[in-house]
Amino acid sequence: MPVHSPAGSAGADRAFLSFDKSAEAVRNNARWMAGGVNSNFRLNISPTPLVFERGDGPYLFDVDGNRLIDYYLGMGPMILGHKPRALVDAVTAQIQNGILFAGQSAIEAEAARLVCELVPSAERMRFGSSGSEVDQAAIRLARAATGRTKVIKFEGHYHGWFDNVMWSTAPALDAAGPADAPIPVAGSKGQLADTADTLVVLPWNNLELVEARLAQGDIAAVIMEAAMCNAGAVHPLAGYLEGVREACTRTGTILIFDEVITGFRLAPGGAQQRFGVMPDLSTFGKAIANGFPVAAIAGRADLLDMFVTGGVVHGGTYNAQPIAMAATAATLRGLTPQLYKGIERTGTMLMEGFREAFASAGVVAQVTGFPQVFHVALGLERPARDYRDLARMNRKAYVALTTALLHRSVRALERGAWFLSCEHDDGVIATTIDAMRDAVRELKAAGTL
């Protein structure tokens, strides 16, 4: 049932959405599922984790009967929107032919061909089931190819939840050490402390520090998001990716682009196509299959062929599962120039509308990134260049903003990211901007912003 805003607020006498049934369901489901959810990233959502019944186009429909404009998009995968017809038809047809073969299929070869055609650096590839898995495969290949063990990663960059990489993904600044020599900070209790011994954590967008560390000659791989889109939506500085590429080549270090978020979203060939810098290895997930559990590792043929002749193990029962491969092929065929042109236009409209809403209310905020995935940071005077800049955003106020938006039928990630699909048309964008203006006005009047 709708609820009403308190008297005297900017939205007085307006009906707002209620999420009581979701809250009750999560509480009840906690009898079987820890916290009532199956990922820690779905916990502690304000006002409650939501329970959904269906999705269609740009919308989700929850158990309370609410229709929400969805900018989570599955945390990034749903670039074609919810329930795209071509994907549903392809998956339905494949189910009639079989589910799992423990062997090869024609549809996986078709999906692999499409990946290699779209991704500039993909001479060869392998499928997996999650971004976390394929990031591990990439690191293993790099160590096998170089005979070295140490890996450079960057503050704020996320490469999965395994012990050896979940360091300094969102560290508290008072624990992170000096900016030019960060201290690795574990992302979870229970992590093996000695897994940090093979990592070198650096600030992103500082080419001089990367070059100096690589010059020591003991680094197997540099792994990075080519555009920093997990913690924020931060562009690489001019010349940064090119400089890291040159330094890796010079020192015999494998350059890995984690394109789990950016792949097939920033461009058909991902961030590497958009910026024109070729890594040795890349990892993909999310938008590769529009919601199906598919990931991929791609890159130089000599490196990928080490899975065949170099003694490097890569496996997985569900790798290239035929139904997921049908979804992959259907998704990749749908990534047309018209799709990207459309999202560039509507995403730009949304970003500009948000900037105007903040400016007209006198709210300090940065709206940065890309039309396909951008980031809103409250309280920042200038665009962030790295994680430590982003860490200074007013997160408490932003959670209040996303909560206010949710009550106005707009669902946005509390970490600041906004994902767009081809289903977010002009009308949906206009409705979202109106909701943002109204929420900002109310929170500004209440002293929250």
Structure description:
With 449 residues, this protein is α/β, with parallel strands linked by helices. The chain has 14 helices and 16 strands. Strand 3 (52-56) and strand 4 form a beta hairpin. The relative contact order is 0.16. Mean pLDDT is 95; it is low at 1-13.
Features:
alpha/beta, 449 residues, disordered N terminus, globular, 7-stranded mixed β-sheet, 4-stranded mixed β-sheet
Secondary structure layout:
Elements: E1 3-4, E2 15-16, H1 20-29, E3 52-56, E4 59-62, E5 67-70, H2 85-97, H3 106-118, E6 124-128, H4 131-146, E7 150-154, E8 199-202, H5 207-214, E9 219-224, H6 240-251, E10 254-259, H7 270-275, E11 281-284, E12 295-299, H8 301-304, H9 306-309, H10 322-333, H11 337-361, E13 365-370, E14 373-378, H12 387-390, H13 395-406, E15 410-411, E16 417-419, H14 426-445
Parallel strand pairs: 5-15, 7-8, 7-9, 9-10, 10-11
Antiparallel strand pairs: 1-2, 3-4, 4-5, 6-12, 11-12, 13-14, 14-16
Helix pairs in contact: 2-10, 3-10, 5-6, 11-14, 13-14
